[in-house]
Amino acid sequence: MTKAISSWSGGKDSCLAAFEATRSGYQVAWLLTFFSRQFKRSLSHGIEMKVMSEQARALSTPAVQRIVPRGMEEYEEEFISAVSELKAKGAEAMVFGDIALEEHKEWIEKKCQILGIEAVEPLWGRGCREVFLDFISAGFEATVVAAESKIFGPEFVGRKVNEALLAELEALGVDPAGEGGEYHTLVTDGPLFKRRLEIIESAPVLKDTHWFLDIRKLVTKDRN
């Protein structure tokens, strides 16, 4: 079985991509996430390191967490360094949750080619609505943890990812997958999980142009 790194955001798309990759014969052996040095939150979804660590424990998959000091140049350096280290441990592929952002896909493919590992894109080219529904039908559960304040109010964070949410997004004219960064999620349960996460205490907070769900208490529980 081919050992793979998941480019892990903690959200629905990276999770569904990892799931699809495992069904295609890859072993997702590491969850690689990059964090802001200033805020200790993930660059992609703004999720705190401690929450991501707890999610990795619920998945029983090692989390590889890297801090990025500032901009894109530093991110590229950390990406190459982290992937190179995991390649030395046996990684032969890296799984990404891209759907339609061509520029990002080209960047990924170029870096992976240089590093000598396979870039795996299980969701590429699917419709964003299809990806949303595939995530639900696979049995995953997720919560909205970030949302653009110009589109959504504070009540939107904390919402569950389900068909009612899809209908609301479509009524607002928002991409169902949030490909433009309109909203982000945290996966809390599903086929890949050994234990489920439960958010016990949280509150919306406004930071710059986004509402974030400040997760104050998170626990893991046995799956039903």
List the helices and strands and how they pair.
Blueprint: E1 2-7, H1 12-23, E2 26-36, H2 49-59, E3 63-68, H3 72-88, E4 93-95, H4 102-115, E5 118-120, H5 128-137, E6 141-148, H6 163-172, E7 183-189, E8 195-207, E9 210-222
Description:
It is a single chain. By secondary structure, this protein is an alpha/beta fold. 33% of the residues lie in helices and 31% in strands. The chain folds into two domains: 2-120, Rossmann fold; 134-222, putative n-type atp pyrophosphatase, domain 2 (Alpha-Beta Complex). The chain is built from six helices and nine strands; from the N terminus they run βαβαβαβαβαβαβββ.
What is the subunit arrangement here?
single chain
CATH topology of the largest domain: Rossmann fold
- The SSE order reads EHEHEHEHEHEHEEE
Strand order of the largest sheet: 3-2-1-4-5
Spans of 5+ residues with little confidence (pLDDT < 50)?
A: none
The fraction of residues in strands falls at 25-35%
Specify the helix fraction band: 25-40%
Counting DSSP E segments of at least 2 residues, the number of strands comes to 9
- In whole angstroms, the N-to-C terminal distance is 29 Å
Give the overall silhouette: globular
Average residue pLDDT: 95
Give the name of the CATH superfamily of the largest domain: HUPs
How many helices?
6
In CATH, the architecture of the largest domain is 3-Layer(aba) Sandwich
Radius of gyration: 17 Å
Instruction: Report the sheet with the most strands, covering strand number, pairing sense and barrel closure.
Output: 5 strands, parallel
CATH class of the largest domain reads: Alpha Beta
Structural class: alpha/beta
Count of folded domains: 2
